Amino acid sequence: MYLLQREKIHERCKNICPNKDDLSIFMRPDFVLNDPATFNTVLPWSHFSVAGGKNSRDGASSRLLQEKLSHYLDVVEVSIARQISLRSEAFFHAMSSQHELQDRLRETAVAVATLRARTAVMDRVMCRGPLQALKDTVTRSNCTKLHGKLKLMAAVQQTQPTVQLLLSTSEFVGALELIATTKEVLQQELQGIHSFRHLGSQLCEMEKLIDKMIVADFTTYSRSDLNRSFEDDSQVLEKDRLQSLVFGLLRQRKLDFLDIYSEEMMQAAKGIVRQCVLRSVSQIEDIDTDTVVKLQDQMRLMKFSQWFELLQNVFEHFVLFLTRIKATLSVIRNVVLEVLDSCQRSRMADSSSAIADGNCGENEDEDEEDSGGSSLRPGEAELAYLTHEGLFISDALNEAERRSSTAAPSKTQTQTRAETSGSDSASGTTESSSSREQTTNTTSSLPTGGTEDKKPSDFLLVDGQKYAVVGTVLLLIRIFLEYCQCVNDIPSITTDMLTRLADLLKHFNSRSCQLVLGAGALQVVGLKTITTKNLALVSRCLQLVVHYIPIIRAHFETKLQPKQYSILRHFDHITKDYNDHIAEISAKLVAIMDGLFERVLSKYEVKAPMPSLCFRNVCKQMAKMHEAIHDLLPEEQTQMLFLRINTSFKMHLKRQLSRLGVINDGGPQHGLVVVDVAFYTENVQALRSLERLDLNMPEIWEQKR
C-alpha cells in the first residue's frame, strides 16, 4: 500500500512539472561538467577566443552571457521553489514528526533518569547489604574449605614420618591403613596438588617395602617360634606380634605365608631330630666318635633298646613341637575368621543400604540366585581357602559348629547329608591354578558355610562350562586336590604320588566302563536298565576328569626334576583311554538309535495316511533321546550326536526305499515319502539347539545313473 501511494504521488508530480529538458541543460539526468560538450554548452568560451581583445562586442557578449546565466539561475530557483511547494505537505509533516519525536525523547530521557535514580536507591538500600552478606558467606566458606585443605595437607605431609614411627614398633597394619587412607585422600580430595605429585609413588614404594618387611618379619618370627627351647612353657610366642603380622599379611593378600611357615616347620623338625640323635649318640659310651666320624655310621651301631629310646625321645619332643604349632595355627585361624566375619558384615551392610536406597532390583536377585547366594568379594575366596582347606579343615569344622546360632548337626550327620546331596548332582564353582589346585564346592559339609541346608545346584560350573556329574566325581576332585597338596607339602614323594594318582584315574575309568557300558550296575546297584541318561551322565563325568588332567599334570611337572619328566607320559595314556571311553559312549548312544531305526524302518510301507505311524514312532523316540541328554551334554555335543543319529536314520531309510523300489520320480509314492520326510525334519529341527541342524535329507534317494 505504501508503494502504491508513493507511485501515485510521483505520477501527480510528473503531470504538474512538465519535462524541461528542451528548456535547460541543467535539468538533464546526464548533466556533468566533466563532459567537454556540456562544458562548452554551459560556458560558451568561444566568445572569448580572441586573445587580449576587449572591445564593445566582447563586453556585450559578456553581458549576454551573464544575463543568460542569471536566467538559468532564476530557472533553477523557480524549479526548486516549485518542487518545495509540491512537497511542502510532506516536509511540514516531517518537521512536525521531528518535533514530536524530540518531545518523546525528552520524556523518555526524564523517565530513564528517574528510573536510574530509583534503581540506585534500591541498590544502595536493598541490594548492596545482602549481596555483601552473600559474598562474605561465600568467602567464609571458601576460607573454611581452604583451611580444611591446608590441615589435610599438613596431615598428609606427616604421613611418611608417622609410617616410619609405626614401622619402628612393628605396627604394620596401622602403617598400611595410613598409607591406604593417604592414597585415597590424594586421589579424591587433594588431586592435582602440585607439591604432592610425587607422594603417591613414594607411598607405593613404601607399601612394597612394608610387604617385604612383613614377610621377612614373619619368617623371623616363625624361625624364632619353631626353634625356641622346649623349656619355654608359653605355647604361642609374642601372640600380639603374630596377630599383627597375620593381619598385615592378609590385608596385603600375601596368602602364601603358610608356605613360609611350612618350610620353617620342616627345617625345625629336621633340627629337632638331629639334636635328639646327636644327644643320644653322645651318651652312648660304646661308640668311639674318633673312629666313627659320620653320624649315620654312628647310628648304625646303636642297639634296639637305644633306638627305641631315641624314638621315644624324638616323639616326646615332637608332641611338644606339634602342640606349639597347633597353638600358633589356632591364633592364625582366629585372625582369618575375624577378617572373614568383617568382610561378611561389610557385605551385609552394603546390601542393606542398597535395599534402603531402592537399588535392589530383579536383576540383582537373579544374580544372587545364580551365584547361589554366596557371592564373595575379591580376596574372600582365598581367605575361605585358608580356613576350609588344607591345615585348618578340622579346626574350621569345629569353629563352624561352635559359631552356629542354631543347633548344628554333628560331623557324622553333616558328612552323611553331604554324601546324600552329592549322589544325584554337583554344585559349585571350581577354580584351578598351576601352583595350587583349589577346588571350592558349594556342597561343602559345613553347616550354613542358617537352619535350612543349602540345596545343591544341577551343574558344576568350571571355566564357564556346565558339567552335570554324580557325587563320586566330587569326591574324586577332592582326592585330586589332596594329592596336589600332598606333593606341595612333601615334594620328595612326587613320583610315588603320581603313580598312585595314575592308578586311581585308571581305576575310575575302568570301573565306570564296567558299570555302564558293561552293564555291571544292573547287578551291583540293582538298576533295571542302563538308560541313555546314564550314558550321557557318565560321558560328562569323564569329560570333567579329562579337563583336570592337564592341570594336574602341570602341577606335578613343577615338582619333578627334568630327568623325571618321562613319568608324565602316564597322563597322556590316561587321557587317551578316557577319550576312547567317551567315544565309545557316543557310539553306544548312536547304536541304540541305529537298532531302533533298523527295527522300525524295516516295516515301513509307503501308503496313506501320512505322516505314517512308522515316522511318528521314530520322531517320538528321537524326542525322548533329546530330552534325556539335552540337559546333560553341551549344545555342540548334542548337535554332533544327532548328526550321527540322522546319518544312521538316512542309511536305513534309503535301504528300505531301495527295497520298496521308491524313487524320486515325482510320482504318488515319492510324494508320500516327501510328506513323511518333511514331518521328520520338522520334528527334529523343533528340538532345542537343533533348529539349524542341516539334515541333508535328499541323500535318502538313489542317484540316477
UniProtKB/TrEMBL annotation:
Compositional bias annotation for Low complexity: 419-445
All copies of domain Vacuolar protein sorting-associated protein 54 N-terminal, residue ranges: 67-220
Top-level taxon: Eukaryota
Keyword Transit peptide in annotation: no
Keyword Phosphoprotein: yes
Family: Belongs to the VPS54 family.
Function: Acts as a component of the GARP complex that is involved in retrograde transport from early and late endosomes to the trans-Golgi network (TGN). The GARP complex is required for the maintenance of the cycling of mannose 6-phosphate receptors between the TGN and endosomes, this cycling is necessary for proper lysosomal sorting of acid hydrolases such as CTSD. Within the GARP complex, required to tether the complex to the TGN. Not involved in endocytic recycling.
Protein's name in the database: Vacuolar protein sorting-associated protein 54
